[in-house]
Amino acid sequence: MDTIIGLGQIGCAIADKFARHEQYQTFKIGIGLEGLKKDGIYDMPPQNGPENYEQSCPNMRNFFKSIKGEILFVLGGAEDITGAALHMLQYLNHCDINILYVRPDVQLLPDTKKQHEWVIFNVLQEYARSGVFKKIYLVDNTLIEEILGEVPVVGYFDKLNDAIVSTMHMINIYNHIDSVNDTFSDPYETHRMLTFGIVDLRTGGTKMFFPLDGIKEIRYYYAINEDKLKEDGKLFSKIKKQVKKQASDDIKTSYGIFSTDYDNDYAYVLCYAPSIQRQKINDAEPINLFA
């Protein structure tokens, strides 16, 4: 997913975060954007309500004509402009489409926004389940806030978006490089609902960015300092125990261990489920798989 397309304020902000990494080509579609279409920026005229965005959505074929292969389409469901999302996505049906859906604090939305978000949240999952989209990544801002701890008002969403992009970026990196050791295999094609999170290397506790129900696959990514990989005789056993602890007849687990030159070690998790998520409000605590 080296091509990132951001729709709306949230999508464009996350696309800007991805643009800091040379691996990604980014496109932005939003309101009040400055820039040229040839540079991947599409300034949409403001409309009153999601229905008007859907009805007035322009032909995006020329804007998307250079895009091919696998893409990540990013949006936050409560924004009115996302009413045009499905109309836009039809011009990308020649690509392998992945969705990154950022769920806001639904409890704080006015009723009309809640209704719109609920529709977008479910419709995009239905399209993913049916195979129109390759995958849909779900993240919940309230859970990310809980994971980060104290987040100041100024720069609040910037911090949350940093966490989303840095985690996705590192998982993407490790999916494209050789590991020191791994047990990865291709995920089941029908497991199209995903989320990701971080792992406490000391305890194995995992906090996910969305309370994903019905998890069937879990992939662990361990980024470990090269010297520790050479010297720590207990590390491999510890990692295997953490991964095995979550395995069951219903849940397939796997891991990859990657060598780094970082001073600190990190671990990430990617979770898969086949079923559509039906949460109406996001009032859950961060899920700890080993609680």
Give the class-level CATH name of the largest domain: Alpha Beta
Name the poorly predicted regions: 282-291
Number of strands: 12
Radius of gyration: 19 Å
CATH superfamily of the largest domain: Tubulin/FtsZ, GTPase domain
Mass-distribution shape: globular
Helix content: 25-40%
- CATH hierarchy: architecture of the largest domain: 3-Layer(aba) Sandwich
Question: What is the ordering of alpha helices and beta strands?
Answer: EHEEHEHEHEHHEEEEHHEE
Work out the strand percent.
Answer: 25-35%
Average pLDDT: 92
**Main β-sheet description:** 12 strands, mixed
Would you give the CATH topology of the largest domain? Rossmann fold
- Structural domains: how many: 2
Secondary structure class reads alpha/beta
Q: End-to-end span in angstroms?
A: 33 Å
Q: So how many helices?
A: 8
Describe the structure.
The protein is an alpha/beta fold. It has two domains: 3-133, 3-Layer(aba) Sandwich (Rossmann fold), CATH 3.40.50; 185-273, 60s Ribosomal Protein L30, Chain: A (2-Layer Sandwich), CATH 3.30.1330. 30% of the residues lie in helices and 26% in strands. It is built from eight helices and twelve strands. The protein has helices at 8-19, 50-55, 85-89, 111-129, 141-148, 156-174, 226-231, 235-246; strands spanning 3-7, 25-31, 41-44, 70-76, 96-103, 135-140, 181-182, 193-199, 206-208, 217-225, 252-260, 266-273. Strands 1, 2, 3, 4, 5, 6, 7, 8, 9, 10, 11 and 12 form a twelve-stranded mixed β-sheet that branches. α4 links the parallel β5 and β6 (135-140). α1 (8-19) crosses α6. The chain starts with a strand and ends in an 18-residue tail after the last strand. Mean pLDDT is 92; it is low at 282-291.
